[in-house]
Known about the structure:
By secondary structure, the protein is an alpha/beta fold. It has one domain (32-220): Rossmann fold, CATH 3.40.50. The protein has 9 helices and 7 strands; from the N terminus they run H-H-E-H-E-H-E-H-E-H-H-H-E-E-E-H. The chain has helices at 2-25, 31-51, 66-82, 96-106, 122-138, 149-153, 156-163, 165-172, 212-220, and strands spanning 57-63, 87-93, 111-115, 144-147, 175-182, 187-196, 199-209. It has a 7-stranded mixed β-sheet, sandwiched between helices. Helix 2 packs parallel to helix 3, helix 5 crosses helix 7 and helix 5 crosses helix 8 (165-172). 33% of the residues are buried. Keywords: Signal. Residues 1-23 form the signal peptide.
Amino acid sequence: xxxxxxxxxxxxxxxxxxxxxxxxxxxxxxxxxxxxxxxxxxxxxxxxxxxxxxxxxxxxxxxxxxxxxxxxxxxxxxxxxxxxxxxxxxxxxxxxxxxxxxxxxxxxxxxxxxxxxxxxxxxxxxxxxxxxxxxxxxxxxxxxxxxxxxxxxxxxxxxxxxxxxxxxxxxxxxxxxxxxxxxxxxxxxxxxxxxxxxxxxxxxxxxxxxxxxxxxxxxxx
Length: 221
């Protein structure tokens, strides 16, 4: 009888522990944790762009928001830690005039990283991304355009391709890449993007392991 009671207690405690772990996993992120994700992910992105792509002059354009600013801080930190004398230019945008001015500053950069997501709705992100791609097309930017993981996961570029022939024509001959996440395997991938008409094709260029604590935060996001 005593053995049965002890066994029941053990099973009970295991159940309570599992329930507690489940509840913790589902807890919403704190404001600080939402920033931490961007810092950690940004650092990984910056290291990847400098390492795997060997970019020595990087430009970044993002929404003008708190979390996007934090993300870009992480990108810049990771990128410049890998090569301290590399060139780095950042602009945040809120209006079409901002976009035009930002693109003008990116023309000498080998790659421009486009990060539209975070605190904005998808439709708002698509609007600003489309303005940015139109401005890049008008300026005939010849460097590599890299789409942020959220920007790509929301299929923002794909929607723009279907509705803007000018952008579709420009991207068909542009050098493109995207970051994608593989959270089940705790990895991120760098993808080469090829555009044909309104269709896109991904070709994996490499993978990087993500920190365990970053993956844990992603699972709760």
